[in-house]
Every structure is written in C-alpha cells, then in structure tokens.
Design a protein that fits this description.
Length: about 300
C-alpha cells in the first residue's frame, strides 16, 4: 500500500496526536506521513459562520481535504469532534484511550485561599464552582504552553487541563493533581483519539482498523450518543465518562448550571453503548437537564 497521508491541525498537541497514530501504524508495518493543516478556528473565524457550530470550526478544512482525497485519514481529539456523524466520513479507528481525567495545576505547591483558576470550559467552570467553595474562576484561552505561561506569570493561581493532553506533550507540571471523578467529570470523548476515513475507502479503513481498541470505541460511542441525545453542539456544562468491564458498560453523566449552583449527576450500566446513553439521558432529563442546557444555550422560553 502507498503511504497514508494523515491530516491534522498544526498545534503542538494535534501534531503529537497524529504522531502517536503514525507510530502505531509503523508498528503494524504501515507507512504514513503527517499533513498539518489550518482550520477556520485556527484562522479566527466566528462560530456563527460554521454550520457545525464551534466544534466544526476546528475540523472543517481537514474534513474537506479528506473528502477530496487530498489526505487519506484525519486524526482528532475525539472531544473536539461535533457529536453528529458525517454520512460520507466514518471514525475508522479509536486507539486505546489515554487518561480521560482532568488535572488541577497550581503555580505553587499549596493552593492559596480564594485562588483563581483559569479555564475556557463551561463544564470545568461549573464543576469548580460547585465543588470548591471560595474558588474564583476566570476565562483563559490559548494552547497548553500559552496557558502554562500565563500561570507562571501570575495571571491565574491555577489551571485545569486534560491529563491526556499533558501526557501526549510530555509535560509534567510540578504542582498538579488529577481531579477525581467526584470532583470533575470529564468532557465526552476526552482522552480518546478519533481516526477518520472516507466511508467508501475500504482499503484505508481496513488498514487503520488494526489500531481500533474495542473497549475505547464502545465507551466513545456511548458518550457521543449521550451528547447527541441531549442536543449538545457546543461548549456545554455536560460531562460524561463510560468504561467497559467485560461486556458491561458503566457510564456517569453530569449536567450543571454554569454557576455550579445546581449539579445533576447519575450513573447507569448496560451491555450496549446506545442503551446506556439513552438511559442516562432519560434520567438526566427527568432531573431537569433540558432546561439547564437550554438556559446555557440561550434557548429557554
């Protein structure tokens, strides 16, 4: 087979993710090359100009290149993909999931009273305000290096970042700890990579299928289905994590008001990812999830 062309964004983390997939392919005796690309999100296009919303901005040019055959596969952080599936593009492989949890990083070893933590995630903000009384939360943006520099410069006292992203970049901040599930439910898909291919390209799909890790794929399917059922298409205070044990899937879901004043959290078990997601969505809706999410999106009546 010819060399597989792997599309990815140009950020350090995106490149590290693509290199991880390239290394896995090499282990299985397949050659590949990485094709870095810029997306509308990288170029500062507003989310109102994207038919797929905020998340669509970070994958649009890559999907276009995949559709036209400019590249053979695309590698994304699964949590950054829009929840809806593309008709002509499939997730051909989900490699073994990395640590899905979040990490709290402090500028100093001891977190001061009334510390201010930076995050751009509504989900993280809501859970920090709910679980850490007296903590302040402020908006902070930029890639991982930029955020860590802002922390070192004293713009914030702490940060919350994904454990998987730090590990893939080889970064181990000195004053950090993993947040437990009772403190911070991660974003759906966090820690997972999604390797996309054209639905009609059976040869490429067969090649990358050797990377597929079934427990990770089943967990991701459950989490993405939950997002679809709850109508999430942008940054929402919605957390979910599924894990498999044998044939069973245990799934935890969380919906919270943006200020953390109300937190809905529940867990289910099933032997089917779609059933687990449906059960979880029903329970969260029964507790008022639809109204909370509508208010965050500005669509409540």
């Amino acid at each position: 087979m010819t060399t597989l062309r792997i599309a990815t964004r140009r950020s350090a983390l995106a490149l590290a993710q693509a290199e991880e997939v390239a290394a896995l392919l090499s282990t299985n005796a397949f050659r590949s090359e990485i094709v870095p690309m810029s997306t509308s999100g990288d170029e500062g296009v507003a989310s109102t100009e994207s038919p797929s919303g905020m998340k669509g901005l970070w994958v649009d040019r890559i999907l276009e290149a995949l559709r036209t055959g400019e590249v053979d596969v695309a590698v994304h952080s699964a949590k950054d993909l829009p929840a809806g599936d593309e008709e002509d593009i499939v997730i051909a492989a989900v490699p073994k999931r990395a640590d899905p949890l979040d990490v709290l990083i402090g500028r100093e070893a001891t977190l001061p009273p009334g510390l201010v933590v930076g995050t751009s995630s509504v989900r993280r903000r809501a859970q920090l305000l709910a679980g850490f009384p007296g903590m302040g939360v402020t908006e902070i943006r930029g890639n991982v290096d930029t955020r860590l520099r802002k922390l070192a410069d004293g713009e914030v006292d702490g940060l919350v970042l994904a454990a998987a992203g730090l590990a893939r970049l080889g970064i181990d901040p000195p004053h950090s700890r993993r947040l437990r599930m009772d403190e911070m439910v991660p974003a759906p898909g966090q820690g997972c990579l999604a390797v996309q291919a054209r639905a009609e390209d059976r040869t490429t799909r067969a090649v990358v299928s050797v990377l597929d890790h079934l427990p990770s794929r089943r967990a991701l399917e459950a989490e993405r289905t939950l997002v679809q059922l709850l109508g999430g298409g942008c940054d929402l205070p919605l957390g979910a994590l599924a894990a498999t044990k044998g044939d069973r899937i245990r799934m935890v879901g969380l919906v919270a008001t943006a200020d953390g004043a109300k937190v809905l959290r529940t867990a289910v078990e099933s032997d089917d990812p779609a059933v687990a997601a449906s059960m979880l969505a029903q329970r969260l809706r029964a507790d008022g999830a639809d109204r909370i999410l509508a208010e965050v999106q500005g669509t409540a009546e």
